[in-house]
Write a structure and sequence with these properties.
This protein is mainly beta. Among the domains are: about 60 residues, no CATH class; about 170 residues, Immunoglobulin-like, CATH 2.60.40. The strands form 5 sheets. Strands 13, 14, 16, 19, 20, 21, 22, 23, 26, 28 and 29 form an 11-stranded mixed sheet that branches. The protein has a 7-stranded mixed sheet with strand order 4-12-2-1-15-18-17, with no helix packed on it. A 5-stranded antiparallel sheet has the order 9-8-7-6-10. The radius of gyration is 33 Å and the shape is elongated.
């Protein structure tokens, strides 16, 4: 019993120590990233204030911080933070910055050369007459001559004044009494972005055709950090929606050169969750993420199977100019609307609903479609973009032009009566199918001439999609064709 007592006591001590260590563990930063080159950063700074004025410095900031967005506060609300003055310095030391700092002075340049087949180095003094700035070349004086390029790698004194390795915030904080507490620092910063990508995997090629088929959908979020600062053990949320942001004022910011590194994080046991926030949607990654500067990271946030996708063909044959609605009185010209194309679009459509194994509001992004070949390999068959899609919203995407399904559009009659202010126009549209299976297609027509129109003759029923667009649904047999004809009467 005595041994058991000490064993229980030892375990209790270990658990208590672990709990204490967990409580004392510093909280990592929190990021809310918008898909508009913007993020809100929240981190903790331990303040130890004495009565009177205190100078406080932190490097827990980015090189693209908006200084006037900084908020420093005691989250518990017990200690007011009175900032008398704030200074922000993002001038991190770079070669260009150092050359400008030593403009007019002489420094050493390290040169490399070969002698007797061996690489050697030496130092040569050079006076920086002009540093590189605003696209101008540097001008260096070496041995009494001037040259428009650096004679070697510049070597700067280690005792350079004002040298900053990280962007820095400095405050002058007034405190009435001595106080020690963790303060929350939050600010807006540029240099962050995120977007969504959806991979849709369809069945084997033999099943391809119009109609409904189940697909698998895998969604990824891609997060990029070009803020100039690493974020270790950060809690990340993603805001989806078009948040109003004013154009940033001109300010000197460090431009990062070179390619971003990239890493992929596989799905964690805790899924990404979302909730409505104001008029937007907030996605929580529910995990601790380290996001280094100039790093791009992918995280899976959606994986579903058996989503029914309707595949159909759309023949929108009229080649109308983009400025068709600005024609004015030219709508009476007979040649308008005669030009046409033979291309038939492939259209994929699904509803973002729980019945379809979805239902989470889908952030805007790229949707890529793949189809499994008869040998089991996936082949890319098209892509397009979607806007932010709420639950219950319909996703309709054009993913390419069909090879074996083509269209032909021909105007068969045109008559205009100037006195009666009327136009009568007739068309014959043919959709051909060279596939081994029948396909469903929508024949789309734009009644663009005037607002007042009436279909006075038609070969089949149509649906009115808007005030000037109609669509005839048709089924085209295998190795066959289907025709649609109609006559429209305009009046003004």
């Amino acid at each position: 019993m005595k041994g058991m007592f000490w064993s229980i006591l030892a375990v209790s001590c270990v658990l208590a120590s672990a709990a204490w260590a967990q409580q004392k563990q510093p909280e990592g930063p929190a990021l809310t990233i918008y898909n508009q080159d913007l993020a809100v950063v929240r981190t903790t700074i331990d303040l130890n204030l004495k009565p009177g004025n205190n100078e406080v410095t932190t490097t827990k900031v980015t090189s693209q911080l908006e200084p006037d967005s900084v908020v420093l506060r005691d989250r518990a609300g017990r200690n007011p933070v009175q900032i008398e003055e704030q200074n922000y310095d993002a001038a991190i030391a770079t070669q260009a910055w150092m050359l400008q700092k030593y403009e007019g002075k002489t420094i050493d340049f390290q040169r490399s050369y070969f002698e007797n087949g061996q690489e050697k180095t030496d130092l040569i003094p050079g006076k920086i007459l002009r540093a590189e700035a605003n696209g101008t070349q540097p001008l260096i004086e070496v041995n009494g001559t001037m040259q428009f390029q650096l004679p070697g790698l510049p070597v700067f004194p280690a005792s350079t004044d004002g040298l900053l390795l990280k962007p820095t915030l400095r405050w002058e904080i007034y405190s009435k009494d001595a106080a020690q507490f963790p303060a929350e620092l939050s600010y807006l910063t540029h240099g962050f972005n995120w977007n969504a990508t959806y991979n849709v995997i369809a069945a084997k090629a033999e099943a391809a055709g119009s109609g409904v088929e189940p697909v698998d959908i895998v969604g990824w979020v891609t997060i990029s950090n070009n803020s100039g600062t690493d974020f270790t053990n950060a809690r990340i949320k993603l805001m989806a929606g078009d948040v109003a942001v004013l154009a940033p004022q001109a300010m000197d910011r460090l431009e990062f050169m070179g390619r971003a590194t990239q890493s992929v994080m596989v799905a964690a046991p805790r899924p990404v969750t979302q909730k409505s926030f104001d008029d937007f949607h907030l996605y929580n990654l529910n995990r601790i993420v380290t996001l280094k500067d100039r790093e791009t990271k992918q995280i899976e946030f959606l994986r579903v199977t058996g989503v029914p996708v309707t595949r159909k063909y759309v023949y929108d044959g009229a080649e109308l100019p983009d400025y068709i609605h600005n024609y004015g009185q030219q709508y009476t010209q007979s040649e308008m609307g005669v030009a046409s194309t033979t291309k038939v679009h492939i259209e994929q459509e699904f509803v973002n609903s729980k019945q379809n194994h979805l239902g989470m509001p889908l952030p805007a992004g790229v949707v890529r479609f793949y189809r499994t070949d008869s040998d089991g390999q996936m082949e890319f068959v098209g892509e397009n973009t979607i806007d932010h899609t709420p639950e219950g919203g319909k996703v309709r995407l054009t993913t390419g032009d069909a090879f074996d399904v083509t269209g032909q559009r021909k105007r068969t009659d045109f008559h205009m009566d100037y006195n009666a202010h009327t136009i009568d126009e007739s068309y014959l549209i043919t959709v051909k199918n060279a596939k081994d299976k029948p396909v469903n297609a929508d024949v789309v027509e734009h009644l663009f001439r005037v607002v007042n129109w009436e279909i006075v003759d038609k070969s089949s029923d149509y649906e009115k999609r808007d005030s000037s667009t109609i669509a005839f649904p048709v089924t085209v047999p295998a190795h066959g064709q289907q025709q649609v004809s109609y006559k429209v009467h305009y009046s003004w």
